[in-house]
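Example S7 (structure tokens).
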């Protein structure tokens, strides 16, 4: 966790993370609705994967098998490559992460000082060292069975695909231990909203320290 005391009017930077399917996106949406500026790493990657330059690079690396019928990138095909080979995953991350980071910095630079918080919504927050850029880390916690069912239902993954993705991240136990605040998501959206509201109230104290 980082202190940003050099700028007394800077909004706190919140790192948002959680296990796969824990409901991190729902929390990010609620924080955005509360006035926070949210940098969504997954959404930025999705946008980058539509860029002609990125498409050309990946086709050069892995061939036309990564293209779908419309000529765009097939994310499932890419996932099958990078989650089976750590070297290829690192190669892709080295291509995309600097662009994702630049987008986040540009977005945060445009945020008004009155913004409640600047949120880094990144599934690999700890893995890529983004936790060092944060004033507070929020971990979205959900029962593993709920997570598994939620993600398989929403994304159509198999049990094997779920496990493969989980193994590409540090454990949920370690993420939980390294977080400053845990938001529980084992109920409905109303219950989750109460948890998020409680955190937003805590932000007042965090802002006073930044």
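Recovered sequence:
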């Amino acid at each position: 966790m980082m202190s940003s005391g050099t700028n007394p009017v800077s909004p706190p930077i919140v790192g948002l993370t959680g296990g796969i399917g824990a409901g991190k996106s729902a929390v990010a949406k609620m924080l955005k609705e509360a006035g926070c500026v949210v940098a969504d790493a997954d959404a930025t990657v999705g946008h980058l994967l539509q860029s002609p330059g990125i498409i050309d690079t990946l086709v050069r690396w892995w061939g036309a098998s990564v293209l779908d019928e419309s000529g765009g990138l097939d994310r499932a095909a890419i996932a099958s490559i990078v989650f089976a080979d750590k070297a290829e995953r690192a190669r892709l991350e080295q291509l995309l992460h600097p662009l994702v980071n630049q987008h986040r910095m540009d977005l945060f630079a445009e945020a008004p000082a009155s913004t409640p918080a600047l949120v880094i919504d990144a599934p690999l927050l700890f893995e890529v060292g983004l936790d060092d850029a944060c004033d507070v880390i929020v971990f979205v916690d959900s029962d593993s069975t709920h997570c598994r069912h939620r993600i398989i239902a929403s994304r159509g993954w198999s049990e094997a695909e779920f496990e493969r993705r989980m193994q590409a991240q540090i454990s949920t136990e370690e993420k939980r231990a390294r977080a400053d605040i845990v938001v529980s998501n084992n109920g409905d959206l109303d219950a989750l909203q109460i948890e998020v509201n409680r955190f937003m109230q805590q932000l007042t104290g965090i802002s006073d320290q930044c």
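Notes on this example. Residues 13-209 form a domain with the Rossmann fold fold (CATH 3.40.50.300).
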